[in-house]
Write a structure and sequence with these properties.
There is one protein chain. The chain is an alpha+beta fold. The chain has one helix and ten strands. Strands 2, 3, 5, 6, 7 and 9 form a six-stranded antiparallel sheet that branches.
């Protein structure tokens, strides 16, 4: 009986926490992704989402990426260069960057980077945004 009094509330709390984290994860929308080459390079990801974005982050798979520079290109022709010197390891995500104001519609994201091949695989960079 004592175990039941402890176990039932614990299970309820676990379900609430799991549900809350799922809702938070759904806030991020994939803007686009690109397989990127080796060594030092520049690439562009064209955004597939047309709504206002207030925050972005980058995720990396297959090989680590050292970001040197990131530029957001907005639909209205404006550009925003971000302070973005960050090493992102395989399977990790960068820190989130908040976009000033009430957000912007992102046309594309340019990024300059350096990467090393892991077993000959190119890195895959994915840009996520949320409003």
């Amino acid at each position: 009986m004592k175990i039941r009094r402890i176990l039932v509330p614990l299970v309820v709390v676990l379900f609430v926490v799991a549900g809350a984290s799922t809702v938070l994860a759904q806030d991020w929308q994939k803007l686009g992704e690109k397989n990127v080459g080796f060594n030092i390079d520049h690439d562009r990801i064209n955004a597939q989402h047309k709504g206002r974005i207030r925050e972005i982050h980058l995720a990396v798979r297959n090989a680590p990426v050292k970001f040197k520079r990131v530029v957001l290109n907005y639909m209205d022709g404006e550009r925003k260069e971000l302070e973005y010197l960050e090493d992102v390891q395989v399977g990790q995500e960068s820190r989130s960057i908040t976009i000033e104001g009430d957000g912007h519609v992102i046309k594309s994201v340019d990024f300059w980077f350096e990467t090393d091949s892991l077993r000959g695989k190119k890195a895959k960079v994915t840009v996520y945004g949320r409003s």
